[in-house]
Amino acid sequence: MRTSKRLLLLILAATLTLMAACDMEESRPSYSPIQNTLPAGGKLIEWDAENERLNIEQVKAELDEENGAIFSKSMDWYATESSIGFERLHGKTARQAVDLINCLKTATPEKQTSCLE
Description:
By secondary structure, the chain is mainly alpha-helical. It has four helices and two strands. The protein has a two-stranded antiparallel sheet. Helix 3 crosses helix 4 (about 95-105).
């Protein structure tokens, strides 16, 4: 009887560990490039150095729902995973920003500067 309780506790502990690991994996942003279907042109991203803000909402407002979601997902990744400052997005369109972010996702840290050229 004692062995079966230990086995049951071991199985329960392993199951809980796997569930926690899976939950952590789902909450981590994806480093896979996102398919960029955003149209060329449009409002440019502007960096306000004084307030340290981007006009992301204004840029997103010009996109349809699907492309807005792509842009938001890319910007979320950039905000949480990239060590490159927001000012590097200044003067880019939403499409250019998604391309840049896709490049950063796949580049090694040493090669990320080539994404900015």
